[in-house]
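::Encoded backbone::
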Amino acid sequence: MLYSLRSRLMLSFSILLIIPFTAVVFIFSRESANVIQSSIETSTLQTIGQFASHADTLLMQIEDTGKQVLSSPFTQQWITTTLNGGSSIGERYLATQQLRNFFSSYTVNNSNIISVSAFKEVGGGIWTQDKSYLESDWYKQYRRYNIRWTGAHRDRDQIDESMRQSEVNSLVVPLVQLQSLNNIGVLKINFPTSLLRDDIDKIRFGSSGRAFLLTEEGTGVLNQDLGGSRQVLSEGLAYVKAHSAGQISGIIPLRKKDTDYLLFYRKLPAQNWIIIGEVPKAELYAKITQIKQTLLLGSLGLLVLVIAVALWLSIGITKPLSAMAQAMRHVKHGRFDLALEHMPKVRTRRSEVHYVASVFEQMTHRLKYLIETEFETDLRRKNAEYKALLLQINPHFFNNTLEIIGGLAAMKREDLVMDATEALAKMMRYSLDLDSDLVKVSEEIGYIRDYLLIQKLRHQDKLIFSIHSDPEAESLHIAKFILQPIVENAVKYSLEKGEAAEVAVSSELRDNRLWLTVKDNGIGMPQDMISGILADTELRSGVGILNDKGNSIGLRNTLSRCRLYYGDLFEISIESEEGGGTAITLKLPPVRS
């Protein structure tokens, strides 16, 4: 019986399967533990990094606020009045009241700021008007060590009592007259400590790990309760100072009282602060330990199963494996439907091969679903990013338009001021209307007309434009903002040529298709660029164009959106000569509702 074919097959299969399987389980267990460990560490660092990005954004806003307040005419007038020994009491009182009103107004209009205070070395704070601030910790640290970013504290120099009870962090800025650079004290921008503390307190690692925002000396910035973590954090900071020169973030292993810790840190160099999280290593890697135990128990169970069914592995194994290999090749190339057609038919799950085939079929279904879902999610994300962009007007264009309006007002050109203001207002209303991605051709042409009108006011005789709109095409619908990037490029590259820029925009219903044409006399486009742009339009997906970071981003994004909306019905024609101008025509199907 021992030498029967059945017994020998069972023994052979058992040896051939048990040894490799045990090795695979061991290697997989070790490698998966390393991968998961690396993933956990990366995820933890990313969490620290996300908070660091949030803090950077907030602190940059506070920094900008300090600059704006310092350069304000009210602040500078108050400083000038203070420096001017000949100013009367009434003038000083008026300047102080104007500054208080400005600070109060600025605070009300900025949700991230509790208050703004100014302190004169001679007269004290602007609200309390005493010199008690000279004995405060934040002022001493600023004077002695030039520490401009303060830790959490309460500031009594506030407009009312409720604000004096709130914990704040502050930015201290020298209070100087910008013309003479004379310093008369300090400007203090306060923001709620809770803006950062609430978010950092939500960060958790394992079951007890926390994150803290500290100075490089180990002092808490947000008045967090360090508790029993104080000594571990202190040693971690010492290690960072000694071994992390030039590094912004990293991981520090630390052993304290027979417990292994991991410390994750991220520096904020501008403030000399450091975000540091500490967690016992066992807590962070508890999931890995659980997975190892599960793998061990699962492997033991599977080994018993392998021995029990080894005989049946020699029967009917070639056909299902061959069919599954062919299905795998289709999966490799992304042809999931063909893979499912060639999947071996599973009659019973008593065989490991059939079981694997069944699991692989389920995995293929799941993989197909996940890929399709991810693609749809990506398109939705791109659409969300596009709608977010619709809410923005180019800040340079907006600033230039306001300067134009100011200049016209100075020249008492009320008629042109009204035209420019009305054009800008209509552009803003058009940009902020997100009810639909489709608009009438007349609305898009109207937006382009307002845009070119403002550019005409700016560049005067250097810009000549014409707009022809086919009455039959005005009621058709097109994707919003597909003309603006092309027209903007036409103006830009025509002006670069140094001559008078000529831009012509037209819409025409021809051969039952809507032709939108933008023509200029600019510097033209190289042939290789035209070829690359036309090649992009042959893609059946807009993702490649949306992610493009090369030249002609505005045009490429327009082509991407047209491809997403119109598919194969979209065509583009580009006629260009280097130094001789460019004509771009979008050919779209007529959409009437």
User: Anything to note?
Assistant: Confidence is low (pLDDT under 50) at residues 1-6, 388-392, 540-551. Residues 435-588 form a domain with the Heat Shock Protein 90 fold (CATH 3.30.565.10). The first strand starts at residue 115 and ends at 120. The chain has 19 helices and 17 strands.
